[in-house]
Amino acid sequence: MDKVVGSAARAVADIGDGASLAVGGFGLCGNPMELITALHERGSSGLRVVSNNCGVDDWGLGILLADRRISRMTSSYVGENKEFARQFLSGELEVELTPQGTLAERLRAGGVGIPAFYTATGVGTQVADGGLPWRYAADGSVALASPAKPTAAFDGRTYVLETAITTDFALVHAARGDRHGNLVFHSSARNFNPLCAMAGRVTIAEVEQLVEPGELDPDEIHLPGIFVQRVVHVGPHVEKRIEKLTVRRPDGADAGHPEA
After folding, report:
1. What's the CA gap between 12 and 29, in Å, rounded?
2. Which residue numbers in the chain have pLDDT < 70?
3. Are the beta carbons of 61 and 107 closer than 8 angstroms?
4. What does the pLDDT look like over 50-109, one tens digit per residue?
5. What span, in angstroms and rounded, lies between the C-alpha atoms of 28 and 44?
6. CA dist 89 to 61, 99, 134, 141, 147, Å?
7. 17-53: string of b/e by CB count within 10 Å (b at 16+)?
8. What is the 3-state secondary structure (H, E, C) of the chain?
9. In terms of Cα–Cα distance, which of 117, 85, 109, 127 is closest to 166?
10. Which domains does the chain have, with CATH numbers?
11. Rounded Cα–Cα distance for residues 30 and 32 (Å)
12. What pLDDT is recorded for position 259?
């Protein structure tokens, strides 16, 4: 039952070329940076990644993207990464854009064994009708587009069928965890982490605080250890970044306002 692995490098050692990954985080909040860095150092390429976004140009999943380690992304928001846009538009990266709530439910469904589900989100758009560019050709034409999805009517309303997501591995970050893999997340850093953890066949969790089994109150556990196969203790001083810093002067004026 002791799932603790001695280092991030050892934890990701079997993630090879072409592996599929579900990676927690929202923007740069809750990113499993120690695991991402270890995977970057390992050198794996051709990775097929499912994550809300792809970090920024020099942080988060962006460090894998910058070195051409990612071949496909399934995401809901990618607006903070210029290199992502460049690779996608030049045909170097395949991208499946998915509505955020749908992405969350696809991950959860994969974790609990539901193969597919119906949702109203995307009905009447290319999400359901097909035709969303997944990969561009070098000349700017669409080389691969999304297929049309089945629809059905329930109580007079049309819904589109979305399939579940499961991946070879999942990488997540938690504030606390025990040796059995039970995890507690801090505030908004919970975001996609539990859902990604559920979707991975082998889930690796980096934790800031490692405790012994029984020290976590069962009522405060956000993700039970059944979904986690490996735990890495990274300590409380891991670097955490945000995309945009907004501050306010002591007098209450916005520091960035020209009249302040």
Report:
1. 21
2. 252-260
3. no
4. 999 999 988 999 999 999 999 999 999 988 889 999 999 999 999 999 999 999 999 999
5. 22
6. 18, 20, 10, 9, 19
7. eebbbbbbbbbbbbbbbbbbbbbbebebeebbbbbbb
8. CCCEECCHHHHCCCCCCCCEEEECCECCECCCHHHHHHHHHHCCCCEEEECCCCCECCECCHHHHHCCCEEEEEECCCCCCHHHHHHHHCCCCEEEECCHHHHHHHHHHHHHCCCEEEECCCCCCHHHHCCCEEEECCCCCEEEECCCCCEEEECCEEEEEEECCCEEEEEEEEEEEECCCCEECCHHHHCCHHHHHHHEEEEEEEEEEEECCCCCCHHHCCECHHHCCEEEECCCCCCCCCCCCCCECCCCCECCCCCC
9. 109
10. 1-115+164-260 (3.40.1080.10), 117-161 (no CATH)
11. 6
12. 44
> Closest by alpha carbon to 172, among 128, 127, 223?
223
Contact 170, 200 (CB under 8 A): yes
Contact, 181 vs 213, CB < 8 A? Answer: no
What is the value of pTM for the model shown?
0.93
Residue carrying the six token digits 């507690």: 184
Give me 110's structure tokens: 């994969």
Q: Compute the distance between CA of residue 26 and CA of residue 65 in angstroms, rounded to an integer.
A: 17
- pLDDT value at residue 254: 60
Amino acid at the residue 88: F
Confidence (pLDDT) at 260: 40
Which tokens belong to 255?
Answer: 């520091």
